[in-house]
Write a structure and sequence with these properties.
137 residues, mainly alpha, 5 helices
Length: 137
Amino acid sequence: MATEYVPNYGDLDDFQYERLVRTKSRAYQIACWQGYLGTHEFFLGRPLRGFAILSISYISFMALIWNILLGIPCLILVISLYLRNIRKIAESDPNDPIYGEICGPVFHACHMLGSFSILWDMNFWKGKTPTDPLDQS
């Protein structure tokens, strides 16, 4: 990918009580903010992947507490999966069939459990011009 992907920031402001249309911009933002919890996979309608990422993150956290030598490789695995998923969404086609559908109710439940994320709603893209097309929602 030649240019850095920049989403339309801020279109997730009032979504707690309504189902969102899946867009590349929203999936990217959720992956950046809660990708280590697998929330973006729930948003994209892939709950098995979401639960797998959530389980790996939980096991890694517990391994880090239990034994630092075991926890560090697990933490590296979580971080590499996190970065890989962000890059995969950034390089995806905004016209992919997965986008444009309504996200399921599982996403809202998982997001609310992970809303304590310290990264949620940080503007990583401040001062940058969006590179994605305007949302069709």
